[in-house]
Amino acid sequence: MGRHIPSISARRRENMTSEVMVAPQIRSHALPMTKTKLVLPLLVLIGFGAFSTWVAIVHGPLGFLASAGRDPWALQMLLDVGIACFVASVGLVRDARARGLPIAPYLVATFFLGSLGLLGYLVHRAVAARGGAHRGLPAGAPRPVST
Question: What is the mean pLDDT of each run of 10 residues along the chain (147 residues)?
């Protein structure tokens, strides 16, 4: 308890800046991509895509409209998914522009297939980020154009 801790001399204190105390800032898109960012959306896309295909074959591609017309809960869920897909698409456009990825195919797929279009974009984004990381580019960085 009685130990003396030496203080920093006044001369050394003058040369110090606050920069040594600031933690380095890391951008989230510059972090290395984990397999989860690719595997999870891919598994959900495959599983949900297979289920959606089966439902469309058994009940027809517009079978959900009959359910929505009969049952208010089905209509509520249809509207909820439509609103969620629209809101997610706004973020998807911003993300795709920032990463230099194509967006039109995923917006069309989202309009006709719902969350399958969004999942497809997440898989594409993860694959593109993984490819860029292997070439020394930050994850999601726009690809250089070859001339």
Answer: 59 60 53 73 94 93 88 92 95 94 95 94 92 51 52
Q: Which two tokens stand for residue 18?
A: 């606050």
Q: Which of 62, 65, 63 is nearest to 79 (CA)?
A: 65
User: CB neighbours of 133 closer than 8 A, spacing ≥ 6?
Assistant: 32, 33, 139
User: What are the domain boundaries of the chain?
Assistant: 32-134
Residue 124 near residue 100 (C-beta atoms within 8 A): no
Q: What is the DSSP letter of 61?
A: T
CB count in 10 Å sphere of residue 145:
6
Q: What pTM value is reported for the model?
A: 0.63
